[in-house]
Design a protein that fits this description.
With about 170 residues, the chain is mainly alpha-helical. It folds into two domains: about 25-100, Helicase, Ruva Protein, domain 3, CATH 1.10.8.60; about 105-165. It is built from eight helices and two strands, in the order ααβααβαααα. Strands 1-2 form a two-stranded parallel ribbon. α3 (about 55-60) crosses α5 (about 90-95), α6 (about 110-135) crosses α8 (about 150-160) and α7 (about 140-145) packs across α8 (about 150-160). The longest helix has 23 residues, at about 110-135. The radius of gyration is 20 Å and the shape is extended. The chain starts with 8 loop residues before the first helix and ends in a 9-residue tail after the last helix.
């Protein structure tokens, strides 16, 4: 940008006092359990749950590639916390969170808008089913817990019956 004349060189040097180089998460696996535990505690408080990770759960996290680095780990931990009924997270919880490789093309091969819609639809359905299970099938109670009206909650559950692209 300096060469293109769209950013002042003087400002670059004024702002660039300290440069921090942080290697990707895959190059510092020792940080994964600490970060995962931190995020699990944070999101457990946010969602009013009591969750812990088993030693095998943390071992499973260490085996993941984490191409999205800390942001991906944070998102996984939030999703697991939001959708898990409580108790102890196990390795299968991580496996269930990963996209299935069942012949359906991965989301990254789709156009952004379509990939986003499929991902959100999957999340909404999973979330609604988890809340409904916690409320023992009571739609009204589940809608109240999700802080949406019954009609919206029904729409979230209806995602299950809508065919996804590629099916």
């Amino acid at each position: 940008m300096i060469k293109a004349g769209t950013f002042r060189e003087e400002l670059y040097y004024r702002l660039g006092v300290v440069t921090v180089k942080l290697p990707p998460l895959r190059e510092r696996p020792e940080d994964i359990p600490h970060l995962a535990s931190f995020f699990l505690e944070r999101f457990s408080r946010r969602y009013g749950k009591s969750l812990a990770g088993s030693p095998r759960f943390y071992e499973t996290l260490l085996k993941q590639p984490w191409p999205g680095n800390v942001r991906q780990l944070k998102n996984v931990m939030e999703r697991l916390t939001a959708l898990h009924p409580g108790g102890v997270l196990e390795p299968q919880d991580v496996a269930e969170d990963q996209p299935a490789n069942s012949g359906i093309s991965p989301l990254s091969s789709l156009p952004w808008k379509e990939a986003r819609e499929q991902y959100l639809a999957s999340f909404e359905l999973s979330y609604a089913q988890a809340v409904l299970a916690r409320c023992e099938g009571n739609i009204s109670a589940a809608a109240r817990e999700a802080e949406v009206d019954r009609k919206t909650f029904y729409a979230l559950l209806k995602r299950e019956k809508e065919p996804q692209a590629g099916e």
